User: Which sequence fits this backbone?
């Protein structure tokens, strides 16, 4: 039985509708500390919506989300709930398909902006930590550059450093390599692999990069029509999928 103290993210009975369209249909999931969970499936299967609900970018229609002990239900955003969402987000780092860097700021300032706003230490402390993170993602020599001067892979690595700057309990990656050319994908996946193997970072990753999933993931979850159809360790799920939909998808992408 899982020790509840080890659970960083708990999703219970998650439903999400956009008008009459129900995109997520009753998802239950736990992510333990240090675990890497890869979520995969066809476009429109609800996988990115689940990540966006974890961070309350999208408010669940029904169900509850718990991150680092902060538990919130779906539905109307009251003033009290908005304050709780702000607290929950302090524990979550998120990296999107698009880099969303501030073009008028240097790379270093992009990484420093969130901890500065949250007053997470003195400016010197925040700067030192930001430089450490840029070194970690291999971009310490780009600190003074502006994003427009970087490649797509470099910009995504800056986005990862920015998400790490708040020292989150969990990192969410929403198809982080989907907008990159193939030759740039590897450098981003290498940074993500290092987060797991060297830092023990808890991660939820939506991706079609099956090579990365087989090498790094502790668990994979196949989404189909808003539900988890099958999940398990990569060695089982990829080699011997039990559901015909899972097998059909894997045959198409491998």
Assistant:
């Amino acid at each position: 039985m899982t020790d509840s103290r080890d659970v960083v993210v708990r999703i219970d009975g998650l439903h999400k509708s956009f008008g009459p369209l129900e995109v997520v249909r009753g998802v239950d999931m736990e992510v333990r500390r240090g675990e890497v969970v890869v979520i995969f499936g066809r476009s429109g299967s609800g996988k990115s919506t689940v990540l966006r609900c974890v961070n309350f970018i999208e408010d669940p229609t029904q169900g509850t989300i718990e991150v680092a002990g902060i538990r919130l239900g779906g539905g109307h955003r009251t003033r009290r709930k908005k304050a709780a969402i702000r607290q929950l987000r302090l524990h979550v780092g998120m990296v999107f398909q698009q880099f969303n860097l501030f073009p008028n700021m240097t790379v270093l300032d992009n990484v420093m902006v969130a901890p500065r706003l949250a007053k997470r230490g003195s400016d010197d402390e925040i700067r030192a930590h930001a430089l450490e993170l840029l070194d970690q993602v291999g971009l310490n020599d780009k600190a003074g550059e502006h994003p427009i001067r970087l490649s797509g892979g470099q910009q995504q690595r800056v986005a990862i450093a920015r998400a790490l700057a708040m020292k989150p309990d969990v990192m969410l990656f929403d198809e982080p390599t989907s907008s990159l050319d193939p030759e740039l994908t590897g450098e981003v996946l290498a940074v993500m692999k290092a987060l797991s193997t060297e830092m023990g970072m808890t991660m939820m990753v939506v991706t079609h990069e099956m090579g990365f999933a087989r090498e790094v993931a502790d668990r994979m979850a196949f989404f189909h029509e808003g539900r988890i159809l099958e999940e398990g360790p990569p060695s089982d799920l990829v080699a011997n999928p039990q559901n015909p939909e899972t097998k059909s998808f894997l045959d198409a992408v491998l």
Remarks:
- The mean pLDDT is 94.
- The chain has nine helices and ten strands.
- The radius of gyration is 18 Å.
